[in-house]
Give the backbone structure.
Amino acid sequence: MGQTILKYTGKLLLLVLFQVVILNQIRFSGYMTPYVYVAFILLLPLNFPKTGLLILAFILGIIMDSFSDSLGMHTSACLFMAFLKPTVINIVSGKREYGDDISPTIKNMGIRWVIFYTFLMVFLHHLFLFFIEIFSFREFFSTITRAFLSSLFSTLLLIIGYFIFEKSTR
């Protein structure tokens, strides 16, 4: 139990550090903003307790908001993503049952499943975050375009990261 908590704490700190120090400095013409810190929520085991998932998403969001000065926007987007995670897993998996502590990795689930799951979850997070950020439907199509392009870029970075870390743990 102690090693599991330490492992997840290490992942959380590394993802937040990478996001804050490197990725928060990257913006491509205002349309692509990579947010890979959401990998923490994505990589939690498939049948992680929903209450624990929401608590961890809240903690992750608060940490990101404190570094981004975004007044709860990341927290609400992380909670939205965590709330939808079990539903998205059921949609992507066809309501299959999974054993304890199965993580959504390429090795466990396959590359197509992981890409679809990652993109869908990241797109939902980004869409929610960007609509809260603009807080209007005035720029509806540009916000959807921004969420889509940012989701593609974030998903690409996440898949590359999955391959790198999966190769290093073998």
